[in-house]
Amino acid sequence: MSSSRTARERVRAELTREIADIARRQLATEGATGLSLRAVAREMGMVSSAIYRYFPSRDDLLTTLIIDGYNALGEAVENADAATHREDHTGRWLAVCHAVRDWALAHPHEYALLYGSPVPGYQAPQDTVAAAVRDTVVYGRIISEAFHAGALNPPDVAPPPPAAFAEDATRVREIISDIPDDVVARALVAWTGLFGWVSFELFGQFNGAILNRDPAFDHAMRSHAAYLGLPL
Amino acid sequence: MSSSRTARERVRAELTREIADIARRQLATEGATGLSLRAVAREMGMVSSAIYRYFPSRDDLLTTLIIDGYNALGEAVENADAATHREDHTGRWLAVCHAVRDWALAHPHEYALLYGSPVPGYQAPQDTVAAAVRDTVVYGRIISEAFHAGALNPPDVAPPPPAAFAEDATRVREIISDIPDDVVARALVAWTGLFGWVSFELFGQFNGAILNRDPAFDHAMRSHAAYLGLPL
DNA sequence: GCTCGTCAAGAGCAGTGCTCTCTTTTATTT
DNA sequence: AAATAAAAGAGAGCACTGCTCTTGACGAGC
């Protein structure tokens, strides 16, 4: 009884996975707007309406791809961090930066789906946020551990964060635990700086100007490290 | 002869402008992928094929909107800079930052078109780049003037840019004139940091975490100013 | 053995960008 | 003023999209 039911559910899970895989391949070549349910169905030898047995709408398929994307990026970041020495906080930060950029360059359309313009009419469901912060959690752990190891000695040039920032800092501390407001503020600047750079590079803003990008990126991220107070 | 010819060309120019205007309104409400030539034609009381007399393709209409967008943002940035004291370089930087963010918040879909995921299959023609650097030119002027006024005293924590950066720095100096490589590098970090923040805010990455955004943004941009070496 | 839920298939709806042809309007030339 | 050339609008049509609804087949549980 349950064995046959699982047999059915197993083929269902298998097909669901295959649809997502083909969709991901299409996403990689055509981009988000080029993702077509009918094309996926065609490639599977299915009729288009059959897809709807597995994904109630195109947006649901997109959601799956987004969650998978966040997880893939998060895993890449986790692996990069794990391959470094725990006490080498600067190395960990740089490893995270390069992991984000490398993954983005390898999966430009997926990156665009995660960090580019939101798909119009598409409202990200709550399921995505858990996966979305996976890389941020790694980043937060590095900052937090560096701070508590006394390895964060920021240059004394930045103004203190405004009082109005306290509330947001408390919320951020649910991810990056136990660091003072000013470190939260600096962490935010570095984090947005990382993704700002990657987005500029990927979305064509550097075209014709910044061409030798590997060393420029590395130096920019070292600059952020210096601003964070990480030792160089 | 020429007066009648201009009569025809005048109504043509008028219609072209009206199409672009309606398209911009649609873009503002529906987003880039929701921009439909047929809908524009419908709103104009035209038949869809007639639009093609004015814009050979949807991409051409998009190009027009993109150029207009860059110009609108560039003008906003220029005005913000012009409203400050020329010697107050920090104030000018902050004015530019807020102008970019304010414009982006007021025109989220247009900002997404300019700085978000590139539209798939769409190749930005050369016409766009002239308009695209308009805000960067203002920024570059501020940095350059601050440097030559001796107002740039960066904290001595950042590593010097790598030798491989020299070539790109030369290219950047065509926009930001006469500043040394390390200032170019810092300027790049701040510039990407600004747009990284705005993109995060606009594309939903701050949702549920950073809510009191005005003061947080202002502080973040002051931090970039400090890193640039601008006096606070 | 019969019923019932699951699934694939197909037709169809409303929409899209774009092209082609045909007709009407406008401007120029003879 | 009439004839000609150029430009623009109208409409049909192609191939495509997401999505819905109905029909028919198959396998599991009573």
TrEMBL record, chains A, B:
<dbReference type="Pfam" id="PF13305">
    <property type="entry name" value="TetR_C_33"/>
</dbReference>
<feature type="domain" description="HTH tetR-type">
    <location>
        <begin position="13"/>
        <end position="73"/>
    </location>
</feature>
<dbReference type="InterPro" id="IPR050109">
    <property type="entry name" value="HTH-type_TetR-like_transc_reg"/>
</dbReference>
<dbReference type="InterPro" id="IPR001647">
    <property type="entry name" value="HTH_TetR"/>
</dbReference>
<protein>
    <submittedName>
        <fullName>TetR family transcriptional regulator</fullName>
    </submittedName>
</protein>
<dbReference type="InterPro" id="IPR036271">
    <property type="entry name" value="Tet_transcr_reg_TetR-rel_C_sf"/>
</dbReference>
<dbReference type="Pfam" id="PF00440">
    <property type="entry name" value="TetR_N"/>
</dbReference>
<feature type="DNA-binding region" description="H-T-H motif">
    <location>
        <begin position="36"/>
        <end position="55"/>
    </location>
</feature>
<keyword id="KW-0805">Transcription regulation</keyword>
<dbReference type="InterPro" id="IPR025996">
    <property type="entry name" value="MT1864/Rv1816-like_C"/>
</dbReference>
<keyword id="KW-0804">Transcription</keyword>
<keyword id="KW-0238">DNA-binding</keyword>
<dbReference type="InterPro" id="IPR009057">
    <property type="entry name" value="Homeodomain-like_sf"/>
</dbReference>
